[in-house]
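hey
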């Protein structure tokens, strides 16, 4: 999985305090296969599900998804983003490296909706059909700019939520 964004945070909390906060807000699961395959997560009231390994200082978490598609979209959870973290002890504080990655199902979805309008655009350019190119511009906006804007919006929102989860100011 390609990394969309990598952040390094400094926390005033200790290594163990950070994992206590993560354990309180993350529903632990044995595997992340089901969120990867069906975009569904375990039934829980917590906002996150994932795997936590405090002995190695790592965590892999996913925002919980509702099985009902409109509810997920209304919550601003358009794409499945895997958040991987590594926590390091640094003097009395902790340093946290967080990587935001897109699941393969979301990658395929984005690739398909981004690629098809560009293929049409290339074919129209080859045919020198400028009227069709002008008609294609709104489609390019809807299928290219809008999904990328939603992805950026969700990444920004996820980053804010991770900061709250980890107790980083």
């Amino acid at each position: 999985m390609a990394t969309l964004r990598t952040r390094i945070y400094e926390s005033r909390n200790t290594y163990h305090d950070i994992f206590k906060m993560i354990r309180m807000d993350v529903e632990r699961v044995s595997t992340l296969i089901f969120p990867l395959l069906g975009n569904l997560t375990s039934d829980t009231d917590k906002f996150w599900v994932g795997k936590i390994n405090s002995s190695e200082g790592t965590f892999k978490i996913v925002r919980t998804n509702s099985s009902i598609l409109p509810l997920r979209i209304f919550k601003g959870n358009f794409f499945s983003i895997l958040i991987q973290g590594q926590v390091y002890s640094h003097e009395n504080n902790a340093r946290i490296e967080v990587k935001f990655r897109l699941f393969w199902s979301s990658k395929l979805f984005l690739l398909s909706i981004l690629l098809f309008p560009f293929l049409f655009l290339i074919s129209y350019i080859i045919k020198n059909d400028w009227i069709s190119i002008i008609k294609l511009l709104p489609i390019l906006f809807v299928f290219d700019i809008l999904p990328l804007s939603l992805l950026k919006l969700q990444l920004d929102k996820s980053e804010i939520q991770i900061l709250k989860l980890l107790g980083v100011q």
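The beta strands are 3-11, 26-28, 48-53, 58-63, 81-90, 93-102. DSSP finds five helices and six strands in the chain.
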